[in-house]
CENP-V/GFA domain-containing protein
Amino acid sequence: MAHRGSCHCGNIGFSVDAPLDEAIACNCSHCLRKGYVLAFLPRSVLTLDPVDGEIGTYRFNTHKIAHHFCMTCGCAPYAEGISPDGGETAAINLRCIEGIDLAAVKITEVDGRAY
């Protein structure tokens, strides 16, 4: 099942070919401030559209996750990293998915402050 998403201004567009029925809400300093609801999936299910503007990248703490954001509108629709099993992973900000009903998504609270 393909889902469409983008940053606020549309410079970063993408599709995700996977069910988006589970996600996390992390309370680390970054996720809490941004209000992320993240679905972690294999990087292979994320397809980026050609980018119209510049993509910024922010890394913090252990620098394992590259949080990407639009340099025009500041919206952060996805991140990339390596999963604990060594595979390439994508973290999709479900708040950037078109037409998603977040009430239908199983959201697990994660204590990211503990790490």
Notes: The chain has one domain: 2-114. Strands lie at 2-6, 13-17, 22-26, 38-42, 46-48, 55-58, 65-70, 78-82, 88-93, 106-110.
